[in-house]
Amino acid sequence: MKFGNRINRLAITGWVLALVLSLVGPDIWSATVSRPTYRLLQRAEDLIEKSAYQEALAKLNAMLPKLESDSLDKAVILRTIAFVHIEQGKYANAEKALEQSLAIDVLPDKQAAASRLTLGELYASNGKPDKAVTLLEEGLSRIRFPTGQQYLMLASVYYQLKQYQQAKAYMNKAIAGKGKPDESWYRMLLSIHYQLGDYKKAVQIAKDLIERFPPNRDYWLQLIGLYQELNQYEKALAANEVAYNQGFIIEERYILNLANLMSYQETPYKAAELMMREIVADRVKGTLKNWEKVADMWVLSREYDRAVLALKKASAVDPTGEIAFKLGRIYIEQEKWKEAHAQLLTALQKGGLKKPGEAHLLFGMSCYELHFNGEARKSFVKARQYSNTRKSAKQWVEYIDSER
Fold it and tell me: Which fold is adopted by the domain 321-404?
């Protein structure tokens, strides 16, 4: 979950007059802005409503040198200048003006708190999360009833700082404080719990998102991933099948993940059918690895004829003898000695085998069954050179010699 570099533009229309009225009262001129400043702010508001920002800024800036350096008038005008810059998207200028306004330290509490929150938001959007979090915390502490949006901003900054516990606390406050939270708020909360490694809670949020904001494939994919993180493969498979049936599982990697889950959950037959269907649909590539995977699934299902067909597809693109070896092994299990002999011979000639000893042993067995005893003995002698087949190969050699 990334915190965006774009902040919400703050509404200017009516703001200046509202600020002035909050500062000015007929009987307390000594504690408020002066009449000239009041009139200037009114003129500035008229210009802002007409989008005459440069003229408004010119008038406001021209007034600054005439004011006392620590006066309320100066703080208010600087704050107004900041919001004009925000309206224009000039956030660096807005930062500077707000910093100067707050440095005078004479704004009433409500306006000072609002200014801190705005400056904090500017810091956050301009890649200064450390400075942002201080201002936002200060601003929120001075507000009696913070809004969900304000809590969200602070949660976002803590997330940016990778302080996920604090982010979670403020995100929960944001959601609790709003009647109908936005979808993005739940996404943020889901991301926070994922970063915290609290996958059980993340599962609850993902399921809530699926229920509240259907249809959304991303939430299904996240839910599946979370179940797998929790090693709850049965639930992961169930969610995956629902998502697949709804048309959300369309990329190869997600289809392969579904097939692997099926196979892992002792339904290799369904997994092989899925793979075949998706290869035909061209959503899964007919690569050596994928055809080999299909063959393994058919073997686990004891569908040897189908496994043979898949392996023949794989053999066409296999530069080594590995696939021919697998075919030979299947033929051995089916006692199809002639076919086994041909495939195992091809495997040994092509080479690059992971288990050459086993290939020599199986080739020797096929030779023996076809009554090629001399060729069988040579193959068993070669198999005897490998530790994993030495014992069996030795017994075969002794058996053939005893027959002689």
Answer: 1.25.40
Which residue do the tokens 């994922």 mark? 194
Packed helices 337-350 and 356-369: angle between N→C axes, nearest 10 degrees: 150
Domain segments of the chain as ranges: 1-144, 250-317, 321-404
- Quick one: pLDDT band at residue 42, thresholds 50, 70, 90? confident
Q: Are 57 and 77 in contact (CB under 8 A)?
A: no
Q: What whole-number distance in Å separates Cα of residue 199 and Cα of residue 128?
A: 30
Same topology between domain 1-144 and domain 250-317: yes
The CA-atom distances, in angstroms, between 369 and each of 23, 45, 362, 399, 401 are 104, 100, 11, 13, 16
pLDDT at 321 over 60: yes
CATH of segment(s) 1-144: 1.25.40.10
Concatenating the DSSP letter of every residue in 86-112 gives HHHT-HHHHHHHHHHHHHH--S-HHHH
| Contact partners, residue 275, CB within 8 Å, separation at least 6 | 255, 259, 284, 290, 293, 294, 297
Buried b (16+ CB within 10 A) or exposed e, 378-387: bbbbbbbebe
CA dist 244 → 214, 254, 269 (Å): 15, 9, 17
Beta strands in 216-311, from DSSP E residues, in sequence order: none
For the whole model, what pTM was predicted?
0.73
Rounded Cα distance between 80 and 56, Å, is: 10
Fold of 250-317: 1.25.40
**pLDDT computed for residue 16 by the predictor:** 36
User: Which amino acid type is present at position 217?
Assistant: R
The answer to whether 373 and 367 have CB atoms below 8 angstroms apart is: yes
- CA separation (Å) from 225 to 112, 197, 213, 228? 45, 13, 19, 5
Mean pLDDT (the chain, rounded): 88
Q: Is the pLDDT of residue 8 over 50?
A: no
